[in-house]
Design brief:
The protein is mainly α. It contains 41 helices and four strands. The chain has a two-stranded antiparallel sheet with strand order 1-2.
C-alpha cells in the first residue's frame, strides 16, 4: 500500500518532463499508478468482502503516538476502487481532451496524479493524524488544479475560495481529531472504532468539530458555495475531484466514524437536517442554471446532501444503501462531467441555450449521457435505481427523524429527475427556432472513458447483488435488525417503488413547467452565497485597512517609541512589584580591562550617531558599534560569534551604502527640541531596562547550566565546536526557522525593488559584455561621461589593454579603480576557498554554513564593487533564487530524512575510509549546514542584485546621452 501511494507522488515529480517529451500521450503513462492501485484493490475484493483487512504499520513518530498506519477493509476497498478506477479513466481522457499546445500542461498533470495519490492515502489511512495530512494534501492539490489557468481572475478567485472554505474546515477538524484521540487514548482509527470512548461533552465537541471539516469538504450547506465556483477548473478536474474523489472525502469520513459515533449527540440531527437542506436547496438551484457544468455542479451538491443523510443515519440498512449510492453516484456523475467536456470540446460552448440537435450529430455521445443520466434519475434497470430503492426502504423502516429525512429525499429526487431532464434536453435536444449546432467528430478513444463508466451503471444494476458481499461487510459494523436489507434490482411492488414513481412523475412535470419554475425560483431566490462570501472578504479587508491606518502612520520613530514604551512599562511594572534583584550577586564591570576600552569606544560611536547629519557618517558609526560588539565577543572568548558579527556587519554596511546612492546625502527629517527630550529618556531607559533584566535573569539561575550537557553531547560525537553543533544539530529547528525567515525577507526586499518593473514597462535588453574590446558599443551611465561625451579625440585609448575583470571595460575611465580591480581579481578565488573551509571545518573549528555563506557573498560583492553590474552577472551565471531554493530544499530534505528514525532532524553519521583522503566521516549536520551555506549565499546575491545591479540599471537609464537623450 505504501509503495502504491509513493509511486503516485514519485511519478508526479516527473510529469512535466514526460509531457515535454511525449505530449499528451504522457497522460497514458501517468495513468499507470492509479491503474495499478485499482488492480491491486480488485485482487483483494474477496478477502475484504469476507471481513479481512490488509494492514501496514510503521512506528513513525512514537513519541507522539503517530504511526504510518494503512488499512484496507471493506469501506476502504470501495473507495480505492472508485478513486483509482475513475482516476485512471480521467487521466486517459486527458490525453484526448488536451493538446500539446495547452499551457502549463506538465504542472497540471503532476498535480492531478499527486491528488490521486493523496486521495488514495486518505481512504487507506488508519491513523487520525495521517488521515489529516492526506486530507490537507487533497486541499492543496485541489487549489492548484482549480487555479490551473491562473491568469484568469475567475480561476484565481474560485481556487482561493475553495482553499479558504476547505482549509477552515480542515483546521477545525484537526482540533476535533486531537480531542478524539486524547479521549480515546489512541489515534488508531480501527482501535477507536472497536472501542469508542464513552459519550461525554468532550467527545460530542470533538465530533462536531470533525463534522465541520467533513461537511466543508463535501460542500454541505452552509459550506456549499465553493463547489459550483470550482467549475472554473478544467472538465477532467470536475469529473474526478467533484464527482468521485475530493467531495467524497467528507462523506467517507462520516461513513468511517458512523459505526462508533452515530448515537453520540448531535450526530444524527445535525447530519439529517443539513443533508436534507442541501439536497433541496442545491437541486432547486440546478433548475435555473444554463451552463451544463453548473447544472451538474449543483446536482452534485444535491446528491452529496443525499449521501450525508444516508451515511449519517447510522443504521445497518442505511449504511448498505449509502455505500451503494456512493458507488452509483461516482459511476453516473463522472461520465456526465466527461460528456460535458466532450460537448464543450466539439462545439465550443456549454450554454444549453445555444446548443441544439447534438443528439443527431453526436449519437454515441448522446447515448452515453442518456445512460448515465438515467442512472442519476434512478431509472431501472440501472445501478442508480437499485441504490435509491434501498435508500427509500431503509429510511422508511427507520425512526421518525428518518421518515422526515425520507420526505426531503423524495422531494430531492423529484428535483434530481427534473434537472437530469434539463441537462439531457439542453445538451442534445433540437430546440425550436435554433439552428443545429455545428460539432466536429468525436474520436472513439475520447468517448471511451465515460462510456466505460456509464456501461458499469448498466451492468451493475441487474448484478447489484454482486456488491452485497463487500457493502454488506461494512454495514455489518452496525447492529443488524431482525430482517436486514439486501441489495437487489427488484424487491417487488411496494412503498419504495411507489415513492420512486412519484419522484419520476413529479420530476417530469417540474421539467415541463420549466418557464414558471425559473420565474418562481428567481422570486424566491435567497441572496447568493457567493455574493455574501465576497462581501465578507471585502468587509474583512476594509477592517484590516482601517486598523492598519490607525496604528501605522508611516513614521519609524513613532513605531520604535511605542514599542519600547510598552515593553519598558511592562518591565518596570514587574521590577517594581516583585523586586527580583534581591539576592542577585552584583555584576562585574568587566573580566579584562580590554573589554572596558572596547565598550567605551563602542558607546562613543553609538553616541556620535545622534549628532551626525549625513547619512553616510551615520552608517559608518553604526558599523563601528557592530565591529565593537564583535571585538567584545573576541575578548570574551567567543570566536564563532565574533566571526559571524564581523561578516554580518560588513555585508550590512555594503548594503547600506548601496541603498544610500538613491537617498539624500543629509537627513531631511527634523525634530523639535521637546521631541528629542522625550525620545532620549525612552531610549536610555529601554537600554538600561534590558541590561537590568539580563543581569537579574542570569543571577536567578537555579538549575545547572545547559552548556555542560551540550559540551558533553558534542564530545560524545567526536566534535569540538559546540556553537556550530548547537546550530546545526542540537537546535537545528531554530536554524531552520531563521533560514526560512531570512529567505522570506530577501524575497520581500527584492520584490519591492522589482515591483517597479510593471510600472516602467519592458526592460531594455542587456547588451553583451565587450570582453577585451572596451568600445564594443555598450553604453552605460558609468561610461556616459567619458571622452565620447566630451567630444574629445580618442587618441590611443582604443588600443587593446589588459582587463583584470571581465566587465571592467564597461565602466567609465574616471570611475574605474585599477587597484580595486586587481585586488578583487586576486582575492576572489581565495575567499571562495576560505568560505568552503569555514563550512567544512565547523565541526571542530570556528565556522559554519552561515559565516561561510556570508564570506562567499563578500567575494561576489567585491567583484561587483570593482566591475559593476555586468561583472556581477559574469561572476554569477545562475539566478540567486536558485541558490536560495537549493539551500532550503537541502536543509528541509535533511530535516525530513530524519523521519526515517521517527523524528524530524534526526542525525546520522557515516564513518569510512577513502583511498586518498584516509579515515573520514560525513554527518547529516554537515549536509544541513551546506543548505544554510547555499541559502545565505543566495540571499546575499539577491540583495546585491536588487539594491546594487538593479539601481545601477535605473541610473543608467536615467543618464543623459551625448545627443541629449536618455541612455
Amino acid at each position: 500500500m505504501s509503495v502504491l501511494i509513493l509511486c503516485h507522488f514519485a511519478l508526479a515529480l516527473f510529469a512535466a518532463p514526460l509531457v515535454r517529451w511525449c505530449g499528451t500521450r504522457a497522460f497514458l503513462v501517468l495513468a499507470l499508478p492509479p491503474a495499478a492501485a485499482a488492480v491491486w484493490a480488485a485482487t483483494r475484493w474477496t478477502a475484504t468482502a469476507a471481513g479481512g483487512a490488509d494492514t501496514t504499520d510503521w512506528r513513525w513518530l512514537p513519541a507522539y503516538h503517530v504511526d504510518w498506519a494503512l488499512r484496507l477493509d471493506a469501506l476502504a476497498e470501495l473507495m480505492v476502487l472508485l478513486a483509482a478506477g475513475v482516476g485512471t479513466l480521467v487521466l486517459v481522457y486527458c490525453a484526448s481532451y488536451f493538446d500539446d499546445r495547452s499551457r502549463q500542461l506538465g504542472r497540471f498533470a503532476g498535480n492531478l496524479l499527486a491528488f490521486a495519490g493523496a486521495m488514495l492515502g486518505l481512504v487507506l489511512a488508519d491513523d487520525l493524524v495521517l488521515l489529516y495530512i492526506f486530507w490537507e494534501l487533497t486541499t492543496v492539490f485541489s487549489y492548484l488544479l482549480i487555479g490551473q489557468t491562473s491568469d484568469h481572475k475567475r480561476n484565481r478567485r474560485s481556487a482561493l475560495q475553495a482553499l479558504t472554505v476547505t482549509a477552515f474546515g480542515g483546521l477545525t477538524m484537526l482540533v476535533g481529531l486531537l480531542f478524539l484521540g486524547h479521549e480515546a487514548g489512541t489515534y488508531r482509527i480501527s482501535a477507536i472504532l472497536a472501542d469508542p470512548p464513552h459519550p461525554s461533552a468532550a467527545v460530542s465537541t470533538a465530533i462536531v468539530l470533525i463534522l465541520v471539516g467533513a461537511l466543508s469538504k463535501s460542500a454541505i450547506w452552509p459550506f456549499s458555495l465553493w463547489l459550483p465556483n470550482a467549475m472554473a477548473a478544467p472538465t477532467p478536474v470536475s469529473a474526478y475531484l467533484h464527482a468521485a474523489a475530493m467531495v467524497k472525502a467528507g462523506v467517507y469520513l462520516v461513513a468511517r466514524l458512523a459505526p462508533a459515533f452515530a448515537d453520540v449527540p448531535p450526530w444524527r440531527p445535525l447530519l439529517l437536517v443539513l443533508g436534507s437542506a442541501t439536497m433541496l436547496l442545491a437541486g432547486w438551484r440546478a433548475l435555473r442554471m444554463n451552463d451544463l457544468k453548473l447544472v451538474l455542479a449543483y446536482g452534485t451538491v444535491s446528491q452529496l446532501g443525499f449521501l450525508v443523510v444516508l451515511t449519517g443515519a447510522g443504521r445497518h440498512d442505511t449504511a448498505l444503501a449509502a455505500t451503494a449510492m456512493i458507488c452509483g453516484h461516482a459511476l453516473f456523475k463522472a461520465p456526465l462531467f466527461l460528456v460535458t467536456g466532450i460537448v464543450d470540446h466539439a462545439t465550443g460552448t456549454r450554454d444549453l441555450r445555444k446548443l441544439s440537435g447534438l443528439g443527431r450529430r453526436l449519437p454515441a455521445v448522446c447515448a452515453v449521457a442518456v445512460l448515465a443520466g438515467a442512472s442519476m434519475a434512478a431509472v431501472p434497470p440501472l445501478l442508480g435505481f437499485a441504490a435509491k430503492e434501498a435508500a427509500f426502504q431503509s429510511l422508511l423502516d427507520g425512526s421518525t427523524g428518518d421518515r422526515w429525512a425520507l420526505a426531503a429525499t423524495v422531494l430531492g429526487s423529484v428535483l434530481t429527475t427534473a434537472y437530469t431532464l434539463r441537462y439531457l434536453w439542453g445538451a442534445f435536444a433540437r430546440k425550436p427556432g435554433l439552428p443545429d449546432t455545428h460539432a466536429h467528430r468525436v474520436p472513439a478513444v475520447f468517448l471511451a472513458p465515460p462510456a466505460v463508466l456509464a456501461l458499469a451503471c448498466l451492468v451493475l444494476g441487474p448484478e447489484v447483488a454482486w456488491l452485497q458481499g463487500l457493502l454488506g461487510t461494512y454495514a455489518g459494523q452496525f447492529p443488524a435488525p431482525a430482517h436486514p436489507a439486501h441489495l437487489a434490482l427488484w424487491h417487488g411492488a411496494g412503498p419504495a417503488l411507489g415513492l420512486s414513481g412519484a419522484a419520476w412523475a413529479g420530476g417530469v412535470l417540474l421539467f415541463l413547467a420549466a418557464g414558471p419554475v425559473v420565474r418562481v425560483g428567481q422570486r424566491l431566490a435567497w441572496r447568493s452565497a457567493d455574493l455574501v462570501f465576497g462581501r465578507m472578504l471585502l468587509a474583512l479587508e476594509r477592517t484590516a485597512l482601517q486598523c492598519t491606518g490607525l496604528v501605522q502612520r508611516g513614521s519609524l520613530s513613532v513605531y520604535l517609541v511605542t514599542t519600547m514604551s510598552v515593553v519598558l512599562a511592562g518591565q518596570i511594572a514587574v521590577l517594581a512589584a516583585d523586586e527580583p534583584w534581591t539576592g542577585v550577586p552584583a555584576p562585574r564591570l568587566w573580566d579584562h580591562p580590554a573589554q572596558a576600552g572596547v565598550a567605551l569606544l563602542t558607546c562613543a560611536a553609538a553616541l556620535l550617531c545622534l549628532r551626525v547629519r549625513r547619512r553616510m557618517k551615520a552608517v559608518v558609526f553604526a558599523g563601528l558599534t557592530g565591529y565593537g560588539t564583535a571585538l567584545l565577543f573576541v575578548a570574551q572568548g567567543a570566536p564563532d560569534l565574533a566571526l559571524t558579527q564581523f561578516c554580518v556587519e560588513t555585508v550590512s554596511m555594503i548594503v547600506f551604502v548601496l541603498v544610500l546612492r538613491r537617498m539624500p546625502v543629509r537627513f531631511e527629517e527634523s525634530f523639535s527640541r521637546w521631541r528629542r527630550l522625550l525620545r532620549m529618556p525612552v531610549a536610555l531607559a529601554g537600554g538600561a531596562a534590558v541590561a537590568v533584566v539580563v543581569w537579574i535573569m542570569a543571577g536567578h539561575r537555579r538549575a545547572d547550566s545547559a552548556g555542560a550537557a551540550m559540551v558533553e553531547e558534542t564530545a560524545h560525537h567526536g566534535l569540538k565546536d559546540v556553537v556550530a553543533t548547537i546550530l546545526v544539530d542540537l537546535r537545528a529547528w531554530d536554524t531552520m526557522g531563521e533560514s526560512a525567515v531570512l529567505a522570506a525577507a530577501a524575497i520581500g526586499v527584492t520584490s519591492l525593488i522589482y515591483l517597479h518593473r510593471r510600472a516602467e514597462g519592458a526592460e531594455q535588453p542587456v547588451l553583451p559584455l565587450p570582453g577585451d574590446h572596451p568600445h564594443a558599443g555598450l553604453r552605460t551611465a558609468w561610461r556616459a561621461s567619458g571622452y565620447e561625451a566630451a567630444g574629445l579625440p580618442s587618441g590611443d585609448e582604443g588600443a587593446p589593454e589588459r582587463t583584470w575583470l571581465a566587465a571592467s571595460a564597461t565602466l567609465a575611465p574616471e570611475r574605474r579603480s585599477l587597484v580595486l580591480e586587481v585586488v578583487a581579481r586576486l582575492i576572489f578565488h581565495p575567499v571562495l576557498v576560505l568560505s568552503v573551509y569555514l563550512l567544512l571545518c565547523a565541526e571542530n573549528l570556528p565556522g559554519g554554513g552561515f559565516v561561510a555563506g556570508l564570506t562567499a557573498g563578500v567575494a561576489f560583492i567585491a567583484r561587483y564593487l570593482a566591475g559593476g553590474r555586468h561583472e556581477l552577472a559574469d561572476a554569477v551565471r545562475f539566478k540567486p533564487g536558485l541558490f536560495t531554493g537549493l539551500g532550503l530544499f537541502l536543509s528541509t530534505g535533511v530535516a525530513l530524512g530524519g523521519l526515517g528514525e521517527g523524528t524530524v532532524l534526526h542525525g546520522w553519521t557515516w564513518h569510512g575510509h577513502l583511498p586518498v583522503w584516509g579515515d573520514a566521516h560525513l554527518s547529516t549536520a554537515v549536509l544541513f549546514d551546506c543548505g544554510v551555506y547555499l541559502l545565505v549565499l543566495g540571499v546575499v546575491l539577491d540583495i546585491v542584485r536588487a539594491l546594487g545591479a538593479r539601481i545601477d540599471r535605473q541610473i543608467e537609464r536615467a543618464a543623459p546621452r551625448p545627443d541629449g537623450g536618455r541612455a
